[in-house]
Amino acid sequence: MENYSWQILITQSIVILILIVLIIYLIRQKRIIKLEKRFEDFALISIHDKEKSFFETITDYLWKFVHKLSSLLSKSVFLKKYGLKYEKHIKYEDKDSISGMDYISIKFIVGFSFILFNILTFMFQVMEMTLMSFLISFLIGFFIPDIFINIEYQKKRKKVEEDLLKAIIIMNNSFKSGRNIMQAVQIVKEELEGPISDEFKKIYLDMTYGLSIEVVFDRFYNRVKLDDAKYITSSLTLLNKTGGNIVKVFGTIERSFFDKKKLKQEMQSLTSASIFVFRTLCFLPLLFILAIYILNPSYFAPIFTTTLGKMILVLVILLYTLYIMVIKKVLKVKI
Questions:
Q1: Nearest to 182 by CA among 163, 161, 203, 197
Q2: SS3 53
Q3: Can you give the residue ranges of every domain in the chain?
Q4: At what angle do helices 77-84 and 100-125 cross, to 10 degrees?
Q5: How much of the chain, in percent, has pLDDT values that exceed 90?
Q6: Helix (H), strand (E), coil (C) string for 60-74
Q7: Less Cβ crowding at N or C end of the chain, within 10 Å?
Q8: Range with the lowest mean pLDDT among 165-174, 184-193, 313-322, 324-333?
């Protein structure tokens, strides 16, 4: 029996090692492709007989499978509506090749991959497979992509918020030189880079379709969910309905954004020490628990083996979560 457990342990270690090597290889290939795209404009590449790498070939096959699955899943009205919430995550350059349903397809693929991994785990451990374990594995895999999507979305929002003042300055200068709002948006999307440029490309595309200014910037606000974008939308809507000098309006918006950014930087410098203390106090209990567990692994055994210990554990987790939420609420300063 002991030899059998060692065989299972060795098999699991080999599988985990293979997965780690595969992940490292995929990450390296992704970096290589990024470097190739960066230097593509400065390199002499033959127009004909351009060979695809193994990673690009696999990626193309995966995307073909994703698109086929998306066309199948789009027959469901519920999934089609569910896929609309992912449209805001699509970059302007990818709008013709990726749809919101592709995100749903990827979520399903990851979910079934977790089920497959669960089956392999049960096979190695020779345990009974249950429907509940399959359901939990699928749900974990289905919602894990949302974590990464949300992280990228928050990075994008932060970058858009930082560069929005630059966009307003460029637009205001364009209005002063006699250009209209569509020309100003075009200058912004060409002059700036990153997520703000991508968003203004979408704004310009909406305006070419004939949408009104307030609708266009309202769609911009719904994509980024920033108070500054809402302020611009409200100002343009009021300007469009009542009339007025657009140069003065954008001058006021520019001054308001500049003062807000300056005040925000001052508040960050004033609260940086408090935030550092808060983060230290958050991680300090975990470090103490880890140190005690390393010194005496059986010290926390009663917490996991007795009913009272489990109740105390749940209570401690709830109090710890409440503590973090309250302190974050106190330290948060809304400008």
A1: 203
A2: coil
A3: 2-33+54-157, 161-243, 264-331
A4: 110
A5: 13
A6: HHHHHHHHHHHHHHC
A7: N
A8: 324-333
